[in-house]
Amino acid sequence: MHVALTGATGFLGLRLLRRLLDTHTWVTVLAHAGSGDALHRITRSLELTGAPRAFLAGLPERLRVVETDLALPRLGLSARAFRELADSLNAIWHSAGSIHLEGDLPELRRTNVEGTRHVLELAAAGRAEPVVRHVSTAFVAGARRTGVVYEDELDDGAGFENAYEQSKYEAELLVHAWSREHGRPALVLRPSILVTDVPPHPELPSHPLQVVERILRDARRATVAAPPTVTSPPTGAPDGPSRGTPGSPGPGGRPRVRTVGHQRGRLNLLPVEHAADVMVRLSELPSSPSSRGVETYHVVHDRDVPVPTVVALLERLVPLSIDLVDAKPQDPSALEAMIDFYPGITAYLTHRRRFDDTRVRTLLGPAAVCAPVGLDRLWSGLAPRSGAIPRPPGTPSAPAPTPCA
Ligand SMILES: NC(=O)c1ccc[n+]([C@@H]2O[C@H](COP(=O)([O-])OP(=O)(O)OC[C@H]3O[C@@H](n4cnc5c(N)ncnc54)[C@H](OP(=O)(O)O)[C@@H]3O)[C@@H](O)[C@H]2O)c1
Description:
The protein is α/β, with parallel strands linked by helices. It contains 14 helices and 15 strands. It has helices spanning 11-23, 38-48, 53-57, 59-62, 79-87, 105-125, 163-182, 208-223, 272-284, 307-317, 334-339, 343-346, 358-364, 375-380, and strands spanning 3-6, 27-32, 63-68, 91-94, 131-135, 148-149, 186-191, 193-195, 256-260, 266-267, 269-271, 294-299, 305-306, 321-325, 354-355. The strands form 5 sheets. A 7-stranded parallel β-sheet has the order 3-2-1-4-5-7-12, with helices on both faces. The chain has a two-stranded parallel sheet with strand order 6-15. A two-stranded parallel sheet has the order 8-11. It is globular and about 65 Å long. Residues 226-244 and 387-403 have low confidence and may be disordered. It binds NADP nicotinamide-adenine-dinucleotide phosphate.
C-alpha cells in the first residue's frame, strides 16, 4: 500500500510520519512548497525527538517529497503531475492545516477548507481509489461548553469559539459531501489538544500550549516596564478562587490578571505520540465491507486536565498571577485588556464538556489508554532545553516521560 501524508513537517504530522514508517516502507510526503527543504526539516525534527541514527539514515530512500500548496487547485501541481500522483496512491492522510487560533476566517478557509477540498479531489482522481484519513479536531464541537460530545455529532448550533474551529467544521462537512458523492469511505480523526514532553526547540514545530504561553509573555512584556522576575514563588497547585483583590499584586509580587474561567473547568490534553499511534491503529482495523461512509473517532484522553492545573502551568512559565473570574472585569488593567484580545483562546478556560470516545475504546481496548497528563509532563514540553527558566523551588524534578499503553 502506498500512502501519502500532508503536513509531515507539523507537530502532529511528524509523529504520524514516524508511526506510518513503522508499517510502510515508503511514504510520499506532500510538503508545503516554499517552506524549505522538507526532507531536511523532517530529519532534523525526528532527530530532536529521539529517532535512532539508523532510522534517520534511511529517510532519503524511504520518503518521496512532492512540493504542494494546499490552497491551490490541484495542490499547485500540473495536471499531469496531479494525475500521476493520484494514481500512485492507495491512502491519503491529510494532516496539513493552519492551527492559527487567532487567524481570520478567509485565511483559515483557504488552507483548511479549500486545502481539504483539493486533497479530496486528489483522492477522487486516483485510479486505485485511495482511502482518505482526514485529521480534524474534537473542537469542531465549537462553543458547546458543557455536556458530552459524541463522535457522530457534527453541527454548528452552538457557534464556534474561533474561526479555526469553524474552518475545521466546514472541512469535515466537505469530507461527508465527498464520501456521499463518490460512494467512498473516509476516516475522520478528531484529536483534542495535543501536547508533548519534548522541550521546545527552534527547529521543532510549536504546539498550542506554546501559543498560549507566548501570548501571556508578550502581553506581560508589552504592559509591564519592569523586567520579569522568573524566580518568584511557585504556583504548582491550584489554590482556589480569587486570591486577592483586583489590582493588588499576586503571590511574589507578580502582576495579577483576572480572566474569565471556570474553577471546575477542564480541558482534554493528549500526548501527540499517543494520538498518532491511536490514529494509525484505527486506520489499520479492517473496515466492514458495507462501509462506504464516514467513520469519525474522538482521539482524546480518558481523563481531562482541570483548568486550574493549566493555569498553574502558565504561572510557572510567565511571571503572572492568574485569577479565574466569572465575568469580564469592568475595569480591566492594560494587561487584562491585552489578554482579552484573544477571546477565541481564553474561552477554553470556561469549558467543562467531555468528549465521548466509546467507539475508540471498544475497538482498541488497552491500546487506547494513555498515562495521565500532569503538570510536570506539561512543564517539560514548555520549559526550554537550556533550563533558562528555573524550576520553582520546592517542585519535584520532572519525571521521565511515561509511555502510554
Ligand atoms: N496541534 C494540535 O493540538 C491539534 C489538535 C487537534 C487537531 N489538530 C489538527 O491536526 C492537524 C495537524 O496539526 P499540527 O499541530 O501538526 O499543525 P502544525 O504543526 O501547524 O503543522 C501544519 C502542517 O501543515 C502544513 N501546511 C500549512 N499550510 C500548508 C499549505 N498551504 N500547503 C501545504 N502544507 C501546508 C505545514 O507545512 P509547513 O510547516 O512547511 O508550513 C505543516 O506541515 C491539523 O489539521 C490540525 O487542525 C491539531
